[in-house]
Amino acid sequence: MSGKGPLLEVRGLCVECDDPLGKIIPVEDLTFTLAPGDIVGLVGESGSGKTTVLRGLTGQLDANCRVVGGSVSFRGQQVLTADASSLDRIRGSEVGVVFQNAMTSLNPVLKVKTQINEVLRAHDAVPRDQRRAWMRQQLVQLGFRDPDRVLDSYPHQLSGGMAQRVAIAVATCCRPSIVFADECTTALDVTVQAEVVRLMRDLAEQKGTALLFITHDLALVAELCTRVIVLYGGKVVESGTIDQVMQAPRHPYTRALLDAVPLFAERRRLVGIGGLPPVVRKGFVGCRFAERCELVVAACRTEAIPWTSIGPGHGHLCIRPLHAETP
Amino acid sequence: MVETVVAGNGDGVAAAVPRRHVWHRGTVQILATGIPLLLLAVAAVAAPWLPIPDAGAIDLSSSLSPPVWLDGGSWDHLLGTDQLGRDLATRLLWGARLTLLIAFSSTIIGAIVGTTLGMLAGYVRGWTDFAISRFVDAQLAIPFLLLAITIMTARGQSIGAIVAVLAIIGWAQYARVIRAEVLTLRSRPFILGLRIAGASPARIIFRHVLPNIADTLLVLATLQIGYVILAESALSFIGLGVASPDISWGAMLADGRELMTSAWWLVAFPGLSITIVVVLISLLGDGVKARFDPRARTR
Amino acid sequence: MLTLLLALTIAFFLARAAGDPARQVLGNLASEQAVAALNKQLGYDRPLVVQYVSFIGDTLTGNFGESLRYSRSNLTLILERFPATLQLTAAALLIAIVIGGLLGLLSALRQGSLLDRIANFGTLVLLSLPLFWLGLMLAELFAVRFQLLPAGGHGEFRHLILPAVTLSGYVLGQIARLTRASMISVLREPYIALARAHGIGATRIAFVHALRNAALPVVTLIGVQSGMLMSGAVTVEFVFAWPGIGLLTTDAVLARDVPLVQALVVFGAIMFVAINLIVDITYAVIDPRTRAPRHG
């Protein structure tokens, strides 16, 4: 970890949603930090709560959901209790967001230059007469060979990869210190994915931007990230540096995820994980992964599972971990 | 804590959570609007036998008397009288008879014709579809009142003509909507299966397609009744619809117009009746849609 | 175009639908000879096919026939009155768009609020009441009771107010409802969420980011509703004695002037097609997706 102190500190974040059959807890006890230059991968399958995490962090939860516990602080400033105008000031200028599908996250009736300009304007980041030049420069850095034409285009005139890069431009135009990327490579084909990954890495390495990369793609995380957080059923089941987690996974779920991704040169049967992630309602007891775990015992279902900390930022949530010895 | 443990895999098995009795959505609305309308319809049908003043009874001595709550009003004539002393409330009820009769008949005819053509167009496709669709577009291109006027001018006025006119105006809407429904239905697996199995088109259309479009049709028809009432009143107002001695609400508006300054109630109440009935019908239509239309079920 | 042709065909056949145009004009007491003579004069005794062909031909060359009552070219009569109706309709449409659009927008932004519920009920009523009745009541209220505005006539701006407001009623309700629904739908889109996530203010988002997208279906609606406007104009002009095409229509109807009525229907159909054409063009202007090609 480089830099002065954590940019973002999330402690014990809990989100609750209303539901006719009982309250749902999509995220529970989420804790992590982001420091400048960090590239953290938040990994989870569909239903693990990762999208809710993003919404909770950016304050865009659905109407029937709310944060019921924990704290989020940005540069020491509490975010959850802040009022709307101070939040608006941070959003966009300090925190950028990139969604999954660039085509739908760009406004179809506005030109690219207008959309980037809107963010610049909202934060007065760049004087008006310098904005065009600023935007051009941004696009050049993102790999565009004809930035002027792109600036004057509408989103539907761009290819998927170009659109995603434009979305990154929108998110980073005010040079934010943090970027949240939600599955931003999922909709792209592999070559374009590689481009985007490279761009993201440059952002972190050259500009010191902290990235929170939310995805289900473990291979991508292995390639891009420095740290990883594995999410299941709304809880962090394992976290650590890439090496720590990938080479010596402790939690059975992490192990299963790694097994499910065949390496390029391997030829073997695809191993999936049977079952679906649970919908966790209030009053759920025990390990969320119990239904699908091969190592499950009775205690897994009846006892509250404590967090086992192995080192700073390294730990897991299992009472029968693999590699039970210390690293 | 055992009783609060709920099954964790999201299948909705909630043994411990008490279930509230859930009305179907829209049922309340259907009842709230449908019952008054039904009462009105029943009263309208029963009008000849009800103990109310005669609609045609001319009584010049009480000509132009105001509603009961104003000076000069009396309980004999709750809502006032017209220039011939005829009781307004009674005439409203009789007007309801004709207005509702016309509305229902033309809606039913229009619905039958429109639905049939719509189903044909959507199911058979090809030239049939092309021809019918162009026809529908063409008719919808002519402002409805002008269309009605043309027919009425050439045809002359009679209740039958009015019903026919309104049916002609209305069928195109059904055709268009039903056709769209049938088109989507047509490619659904169960219909495809039937076609492959060799079932005859007629059988497929009537036994399988029809029940599935029934709810859309019901909603559409309910709302159309409201439009038809408005159209009929417009026609009658300009003198092309119902004519004396028949009474419809639109005709009453035409009659009352000249006397509006001295007897505002002659215009206000018929118009109000139309508005209220159409509002109730619209709300009824919404309720029916909420209750029956599968696409609208969001819960 | 084909649509127009078909519309004309329908108009033609309906006018001939049953009965004898000449008899309609002359009434039941006229002699057979008089009826036959009039039919011959008007060309109604020719074979149907011939009539049809000449009708289409005439229409395409701008010959809309001659009015029985006024003995002048129908087209001239119509065009004379057209500006007045255009004025009325344009004013009504303007009112409907501005007020309806604003109402819909505010309702969408404040869903569930008192404003929203009142607007919802209000528009429902607007869509349910007979326009001409609204006109009558407004005239009674403002012209007679409060003596604020004239109840009829034509010439000054103040004469336009009541008829335009009346005519705008139905379309206003439609526009308000659609704007609301469209706006709500747009506000749920990812690009709006993204804009919010980057700190752009809610008001700016509503007016700059969302509105243009939300307006698209409304533009199409206006095209479709123009037919309703024309129908409405007939009764509203009748109520307010506004010297436009609508009034011409009612006069023609009462006088059983079949050629004129037919000409009016033809004109109406042409207008509808023309308006929809304009609407399509406008839509293309507003929505960049329909015009610019892809590159890159």
CATH class of one domain in chain B, anyone? Mainly Alpha
CATH architecture of one domain in chain B: Orthogonal Bundle
Task: Please mark out the parts of chain A with pLDDT under 50 across 5 or more consecutive residues, or reply none.
Answer: none
The proportion of residues forming helix of chain B, as a percent range, comes to 55-70%
Which spans of chain B have pLDDT < 50 for at least 5 consecutive residues? 1-17
Give the helix tally of chain B: 9
Q: Give the distance, in angstroms, between the N- and C-terminal Cα atoms of chain B.
A: 30 Å
- The separation of the N and C termini of chain A measures 20 Å
User: CATH topology of one domain in chain B, what is it called?
Assistant: MetI-like fold
Tell me the β content of chain A: 15-25%
Number of strands of chain A: 12
Derived from helix and strand composition plus strand pairing, the structural class of chain B reads mainly alpha
Helix content of chain A: 25-40%
Oligomer: heterotrimer
Strand order of the largest sheet of chain A: 6-7-8-3-9-10-12-11
Indicate the structural class of chain A. alpha/beta
Gyration radius of chain B, rounded = 25 Å
**How would a textbook summarize the main sheet of chain B?**
none
Order of helices and strands of chain B: HHHHHHHHH
